[in-house]
Amino acid sequence: MENSTTHLRRAAIGYLVAGMGFIAFGFPFWFLNAVDKTPKGKFTPPFFFVVDDPMSALASNWIQLVSAVGLAVGAYSLWQAGEPTGFGKRRSLLFVQMAGGISYIVATWILLPFAPIGAFLNGFGMILVGYASIKANVWTGWKPYTPLIVGLFPFLFMFPLVILTGARPAAIIGLWGFAWILLSLAAWQRSKEISSVKFA
């Protein structure tokens, strides 16, 4: 039980870091009239866009990199805790979201196709986890619905705008951070529930 508490708290911290990173990414577009710019790089067959200067990309995109690590750590920690899916076959659904976090990490240097793949895998993976969460009934109250909220966000708000405009909606991507923070709160609240049962 102590391990589950530790894993859940680590997941909460990972998702909090990720959520704050998304918000930090969106802030300049919300309040500073920032313009989204494609980094300097070149297309490599068949469909890779590789940045020209890896160190410069790391320096300018470190917030996105930290967010991506937070996503991967959060998914791995939930997998270790067996929550909110339970320890059965549904637990393996978290591998989809782990792959999304890893894709975002790689996207720091190879923007295409890993950035859109990361967004898709994180969203789709959390839809799967959300469905499993509701079925497993491990989390109670409002908490089991938080993975579903996270997963649906890009499909409802981000991807339609990409299709309509042909460009990534940077300001909307930043708003995704609030959904990740909500998931962080759910994981942290669940860890407190487990702790209270242990010491009751």
Average pLDDT taken over every residue: 93
Order of helices and strands: HEEHHHHHH
Task: Tell how many strands the DSSP assignment holds.
Answer: 2
Strand order of the largest sheet: 1-2
Rg computed from alpha carbons, rounded to a whole number of angstroms: 17 Å
Structural class: mainly alpha
Helices, by number, come to: 7
- Low-pLDDT runs of 5+ residues are none
Strand content: under 5%
Shape category? elongated
Distance between the termini: 13 Å
Q: Report on the biggest sheet.
A: 2 strands, antiparallel
State the share of residues found in helices, binned by percent: over 70%
Q: How is this structure best described in words?
A:
- With 200 residues, the chain is mainly alpha-helical.
- It is 72% helix and 4% strand.
- It has seven helices and two strands; from the N terminus they run H-E-E-H-H-H-H-H-H.
- It has helices at residues 2-31, 54-60, 62-81, 94-106, 111-136, 146-165, 170-198; strands at 41-44, 48-51.
- The longest helix has 30 residues, at 2-31.
Secondary-structure blueprint:
Layout: H1 2-31, E1 41-44, E2 48-51, H2 54-60, H3 62-81, H4 94-106, H5 111-136, H6 146-165, H7 170-198
Antiparallel strand pairs: 1-2
Helix pairs in contact: 1-3, 1-7, 3-4, 4-5, 5-6, 6-7
